[in-house]
Specification:
Blueprint lengths: L13 H30 L3 H12 L11 H9 L8 H13 L4 H14 L5 H34 L12
Helix pairs in contact: 2-5
Length: about 170
């Protein structure tokens, strides 16, 4: 009787390995870009909100002459604005933006863009993602272990449990 031929695992060419690697990298990049695109779409202001922001930015600012008293105007000038700047610092900031060609509407739009890019971490989704990734790797290790044992059994026969490599 002819002895069975030894097990020869299938081999993949270098080109096939390179293709597989690049394909996985492309899938990861596509997934990240889709997530980024969906995040940007969800963070974009609605057309109504954008129109309201533009209308507020185009509205004329009240002048100092509209103030009812000189003391009130002086108190407002010395008090810091919401940005934490005094009136003099705010005036200097406005002059610099004007020199750059930025009007109030463009500054407001830029602030809205920056605010839209900031985000908070959703801890539940982060933990869920971590769980899914860890579960996938546990599955991967167990499946690989099972397949490796099958290959070893096919190649060398079932293990007897007491035999070691040194004694054979």
């Amino acid at each position: 009787m002819a002895s069975p031929s030894p097990y020869r695992p299938p081999e993949q060419s270098s080109a096939g390995q390179l293709f597989d690697s690049l394909f996985v990298v492309a899938l990861v990049a596509a997934t990240l870009l889709v997530c980024l695109y969906l995040t940007v779409l969800s963070a974009a202001p609605t057309p109504q909100a954008a129109a309201q922001t533009a209308a507020v930015a185009e509205a004329p600012a009240p002048t100092a002459e509209a103030s009812t008293s000189a003391t009130a105007a002086a108190a407002v000038a010395d008090a810091p604005n919401p940005d934490g700047l005094t009136a003099e610092e705010q005036k200097l900031k406005t002059e610099r933006f004007t020199a750059l060609g930025w009007d109030d509407a463009k500054v407001a739009e830029r602030k809205a863009t920056i605010a839209a890019k900031s985000y908070e971490i959703d801890w539940f989704m982060l933990m869920l993602t971590a769980f899914v990734v860890i579960a996938y790797f546990v599955f991967l290790v167990r499946a690989s272990d099972k397949e490796l044992r099958e290959v070893i059994n096919e190649r060398f026969g079932p293990s007897t449990g007491t035999q070691s490599k040194e004694s054979s």
